[in-house]
DNA sequence: CCGTATCCCCTCCGATACTG
DNA sequence: CAGTATCGGAGGGGATACGG
């Protein structure tokens, strides 16, 4: 997970996507973004409570990663007791739109059939097009 | 990774997204989809070679997962030597569009600045809007 | 050629404890 | 309240070897 597998892929774009995926694919990241998007601004423990089950360690870690990626901004109020507020950046909000699209796509395809029984198609001897013959 | 953390999230949609994320977030999944999308149909070892670095074990595993999710179809030709061809389903192609969008988004925001120096904003005592007062 | 079985490592995550 | 330090367990991924 720490490094991109084969960076020299044909179309280039995917590399960057994978990069983002490495961050977003980690546990909680997505839920953090979601909570941030629905509440606009949120404090550390508030977020922690909303994600009940997460530990401070991991939450802090995820938040740091997201900040490094420019998806989350952190605002520190030098008070006592300390207050820190997290919020999404504009770019993260753009991302959220894409995620919503993804969600819509998921819903569109997962509701109808039960998506079981893969049962690979077995072609008959008379195949329609054998592009690659055996080596 | 095996189970969804807190399924009872406010907006629901995310759960399904997380589900897909669990599959797509795994290593190689995205690259597999990419290769499949650029070649339309591909054989096992051909794919393996294209993803140089992946092991048969993992490739087979990913392929099975993607098949279970209805993103990939498998076509077995009962010949000798055996031939198996993988290809994307229509739904996966829809997904590809979204991924491309994501790629575009990544490019749009990652090229300009180096994305370093998080340096959280420190608010002055006189904050502009304290929505949440201390508990 | 197309996979599965097995082992091992290494990272990630959660729990606990502690500081500013 | 907002985190960091450290530890231990669990699981994913890679290498190797073997079967259909």
UniProtKB/TrEMBL annotation, chains A, B:
Q: Residues in domain HTH hxlR-type?
A: 15-114
Q: Name one Pfam family in it.
A: HxlR
Which GO molecular function terms does the record list?
DNA binding
Q: Which organism is it from?
A: Candidatus Nitrososphaera evergladensis SR1
Residues annotated as coiled-coil are: none
- The name of this protein is Transcriptional regulator, HxlR family
Which region ranges are annotated with the description Disordered? 112-135
Record keywords, A-Z: DNA-binding, Transcription, Transcription regulation
Protein's UniProt keywords contain DNA-binding: yes
Task: Give the domain of life.
Answer: Archaea
């Amino acid at each position: 997970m720490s490094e991109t597998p084969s960076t020299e892929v044909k179309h280039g774009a995917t590399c960057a996507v994978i990069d983002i995926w490495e961050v977003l694919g980690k546990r909680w990241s997505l839920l953090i973004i979601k909570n941030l998007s629905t509440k606009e601004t949120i404090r550390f423990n508030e977020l922690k409570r909303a994600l009940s089950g997460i530990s401070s360690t991991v939450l802090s870690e995820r938040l740091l990663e997201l900040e490094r990626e420019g998806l989350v901004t952190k605002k520190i109020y030098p008070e006592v007791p300390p207050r820190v507020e997290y919020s999404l950046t504009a770019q993260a909000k753009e991302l959220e739109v894409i995620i919503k699209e993804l969600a819509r796509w998921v819903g569109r395809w997962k509701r109808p059939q039960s998506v079981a029984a893969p049962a690979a198609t077995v072609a008959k001897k008379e195949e329609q097009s054998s592009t690659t013959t055996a080596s």
